[in-house]
């Protein structure tokens, strides 16, 4: 039995889910034209939280299980009461979301077979339901089939524990209610990947637990750990993010470090190395103020509002224009960060599996794969330039980690 260390085995469960052919969609609501954004604009008045895309597990929060091709409200949630939404899942039929509310409680909805909704059952939920027992929550994160929360500096976890990602010194015992990660104190941010967990501490160090099969724990080995371990060499960290099998960290002075899976260039270090079990520095990034990670790609925003992207690009996630194919868009994965002119000035970014979201001025824009309406433009067409999904007073966006669902709030 491992002894938990107080701080300031791998079993792959990832299931990507088959992409389904989309049905014919009705006419577009309204046309929009602009120099950087193309496509259609969907009206989104009112104070609701909006969702669109795949809904087959109830992850839209609409009360049903149908897909949405344009934004619609999440039942029972209003923008003014939501501080953060994090969306997880390892396939469209397995997606779920957790919402941190301003009053310190947490709600969850969508797929629940591993207990990832934290409601005490394994049932799917089509509308937001309260996560058991959580109060004074300051951050949340949704992973492949597990979720995390911070309450008064302590980390709580629930859902799938097949690789020890709940951090409670056990492996294989899922939990339908939050359990405390006993060795973590003074946490200020959490991030969750498909099968691992990260916590950023008040002292600027990062700790990890769960599967280490692809180096995603950053501990210098590929062992899985059911209790937190310190990520090697990271100090003065200001922000963390987790992809499906890779981690990202931003330092206080604006540098970016990455570790884990690198098969599609998601480490951004310019190498063809398949993975790294300790942090490496992403090339050319400085003065970074925000990071976000999707399944196999990542974004960073610099202080001057320049947006950089790297990693998987098969669905046009990185918005590079060239003559690589008949779309005029590069589909080449990038192992070093590239500047994305079309996203300059973005106020928020969210990265999913094959699609991404941003807030530009008063618009929520989306691009990439669109098999289940996840771009919100009323069509099933993939888009290689941003299209407008919604207009309104939105401040944040979220995309399913490895699914096809989108949120704006």
Automatic annotation (TrEMBL):
Alphabetical UniProt keywords: Repeat, Signal
Protein name in the entry: Alpha-tubulin suppressor
Pfam families for the chain: WD40_RLD
PROSITE patterns (alphabetical): RCC1_2, RCC1_3
Signal peptide range: 1-43
Stretches for region Disordered: 108-131
UniProt xrefs under SUPFAM superfamilies: RCC1/BLIP-II
InterPro entries associated with the record: RCC1-like_dom, RCC1/BLIP-II, Reg_chr_condens, Ub_ligase/GEF_domain
Gene3D superfamilies given in the database record: Regulator of chromosome condensation 1/beta-lactamase-inhibitor protein II
Domain of life: Bacteria
Domain RCC1-like: 48-405
């Amino acid at each position: 039995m491992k002894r938990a260390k107080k701080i300031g085995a791998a079993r792959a469960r990832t299931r990507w889910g088959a992409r389904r052919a989309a049905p014919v969609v009705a006419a577009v609501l309204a046309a929009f034209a602009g120099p950087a954004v193309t496509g259609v604009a969907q009206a989104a008045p009112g104070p609701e939280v909006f969702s669109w895309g795949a809904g087959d597990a109830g992850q839209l929060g609409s009360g049903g299980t149908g897909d949405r091709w344009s934004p619609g409200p999440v039942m029972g949630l209003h923008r003014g009461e939501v501080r953060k939404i994090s969306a997880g899942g390892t396939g469209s039929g397995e997606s779920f979301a957790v919402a941190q509310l301003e009053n310190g409680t947490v709600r969850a909805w969508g797929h629940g077979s591993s207990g990832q909704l934290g409601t005490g059952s394994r049932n799917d939920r089509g509308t937001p339901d309260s996560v058991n027992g959580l109060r004074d929550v300051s951050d949340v994160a949704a992973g492949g089939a597990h979720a995390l929360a911070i309450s008064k500096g302590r980390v709580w976890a629930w859902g799938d524990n097949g690789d020890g990602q709940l951090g409670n010194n056990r492996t294989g015992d899922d939990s339908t209610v939050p359990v405390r990660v006993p060795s973590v104190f003074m946490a200020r941010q959490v991030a969750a990947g498909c099968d691992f967990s990260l916590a950023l501490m008040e002292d600027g160090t990062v700790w990890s637990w769960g599967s280490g099969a692809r180096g995603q724990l950053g501990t210098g080995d590929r062992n899985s750990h059911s209790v937190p371990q310190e990520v090697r060499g990271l100090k003065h960290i200001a922000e963390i993010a987790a992809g499906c099998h890779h981690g990202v960290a931003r330092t206080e002075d604006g540098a970016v470090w990455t570790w884990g899976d690198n098969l599609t260039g998601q480490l951004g270090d310019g190498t063809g190395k398949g993975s790294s079990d300790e942090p490496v520095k992403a090339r050319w990034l400085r003065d970074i103020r925000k990071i976000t990670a999707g399944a196999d790609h990542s974004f960073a925003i610099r202080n001057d509002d320049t947006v950089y992207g790297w990693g998987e690009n098969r669905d046009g996630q990185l918005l590079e224009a060239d003559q690589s194919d008949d779309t005029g868009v590069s589909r080449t994965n990038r192992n070093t960060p590239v500047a994305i002119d079309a996203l300059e000035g973005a106020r928020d970014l969210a990265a999913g599996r094959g699609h991404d979201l941003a807030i530009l001025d008063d618009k929520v824009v989306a691009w990439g794969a669109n098999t289940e309406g996840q771009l919100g433009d009323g069509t099933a067409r993939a888009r290689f330039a941003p299209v407008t999904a919604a207009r309104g007073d939105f401040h944040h966006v979220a995309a399913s980690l490895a699914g096809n669902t989108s949120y704006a709030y």
